[in-house]
Write a structure and sequence with these properties.
Largest sheet: 6 strands, mixed
Strand order of the largest sheet: 12-10-11-19-22-20
Distance between the termini: 47 Å
Structural class: alpha+beta
Number of helices: 10
CATH class of the largest domain: Alpha Beta
CATH architecture of the largest domain: 3-Layer(aba) Sandwich
Helix content: 25-40%
Strand content: 25-35%
């Protein structure tokens, strides 16, 4: 038995599949029924007896069982280490005026973002150009570059700083701040943010997930052209009530998908092109073209997407544990106990699919079939 063990949640989520969340480390692990019992036995053998798996344990053998328990001890020790937020070198910009700024309006709320130099504008503005306005702002963010780091402030209060290799973390933070402001919510009200795109049609919603380059944004564009309403692209926030909220950025369209996008949206040629880096190359940002504005929606269908000319046109349900192993590494999930429960409840109530395709018409029919 491991002493001084932190709180944890253990739930069955699928056939022979369980999820365990550890409060101290905010870690999630996916395990089968036998491993679950071996782990719980290590935490408290009196509370979680192994009787039901005695035959399976005998088959493992003493030496193999010892190795498994050694691995479990290492895992549990790791899961019992408290996670800590990064510390940041602070700056003070109180009352300092920055020379460049933009204002964005969404959901009747206006934010002003000030930049210490012109080059910083392209970190945020391109995704939100369609929201630009001249109205009076309710909140001011400031972005400053100093000592090869980006510093972020809200109402002159320091939020954090990020180096060149941490730009994805900076984008995640400013996206979370903007989402909270646009929906008039506190950051403590969010359970999770997924690296996925959420869309809705006729009261049904789905979230597209998958590795970068697998075609999430391209598929979002195709679905939007087929009367799906875009709720969020590549950054899907979920509240403690299990609702997926609108993140009003434009869809990032890579150069290889320009021709298809031109055929889908007449206005695509008019969009400004931006160079991102040597890997992503040039992109254009396509704003949502929805018949209705959806601020939030319950979403319990998740499709892991992969496009390829040599792939089958196929959609199939997958084990929730397998799906989570793909989703969790890129997701942010709150450390809070209630949020962990909310996330696991969402997993238990959701359906997960693998979608592979090489033909857009067949793909649309397959998606229609699961709605």
């Amino acid at each position: 038995m491991i002493t001084n063990f932190s709180n944890f949640i253990c739930e069955k989520i699928d056939l022979d599949t369980n999820i365990i969340w550890f409060e101290k480390s905010n870690k999630y692990i996916i395990i089968n029924d036998l491993l679950k019992c071996l782990i719980l036995d290590k935490i408290d053998s009196n509370k979680y007896p192994l009787n039901q798996f005695s035959s399976e344990i005998n088959e493992i053998g003493t030496s193999n069982l010892k190795k498994i328990y050694d691995d479990i001890n290492s895992l549990l020790n790791e899961c019992n280490i408290e996670s800590k937020d990064k510390t940041h070198e602070e700056l003070n910009v109180k009352h300092e005026k920055f020379p460049h700024y933009s204002k964005f309006k969404f959901n009747k709320r206006v934010v002003k973002i000030e930049y210490s130099n012109r080059d910083l504008i392209n970190l945020i503005d391109p995704k939100f150009t369609h929201l630009k306005c001249d109205d009076n702002e309710q909140i001011v963010f400031k972005v400053q570059e100093k000592n090869k780091r980006i510093y972020l402030f809200k109402q002159d209060k320091f939020i954090g700083s990020w180096g060149v290799s941490e730009m994805h973390e900076f984008h995640g933070k400013i996206s979370m701040e903007l989402t909270s402001f646009f929906h008039n919510m506190r950051e403590s009200e969010w359970t999770a943010v997924f690296h996925g795109s959420t869309l809705s049609k006729m009261n049904n919603s789905l979230m597209l997930t998958g590795d970068s380059g697998n075609g999430k944004s391209s598929l979002s564009t195709i679905l939007m052209a087929n009367n799906f309403s875009l709720i969020a692209d590549d950054f899907s926030p979920m509240s403690n009530e299990g609702l997926h909220y609108n993140f009003p950025s434009a869809i990032s369209i890579k150069e290889g998908f320009y021709n298809t996008s031109k055929n889908l949206f007449k206005s695509f040629n008019e969009l400004k092109e931006y160079y991102i880096n040597d890997i992503k190359g040039n992109v254009k940002y396509l704003p949502a073209n929805n018949n209705e504005l959806i601020l939030y929606k319950r979403c319990n269908k998740v499709l892991n997407v992969k496009f390829g000319l040599n792939l089958k046109n196929e959609i199939k349900t997958v084990n929730k544990g397998k799906a989570l192993e793909q989703i969790l590494p890129d997701a942010w999930i709150s450390k809070d106990l209630n949020h962990a429960k909310s996330f696991i409840d969402w997993v238990k109530s959701s359906l997960f699919y693998d979608l592979t395709y090489n033909n857009n018409d067949k793909m649309l029919k397959m998606i229609k079939d699961i709605f």
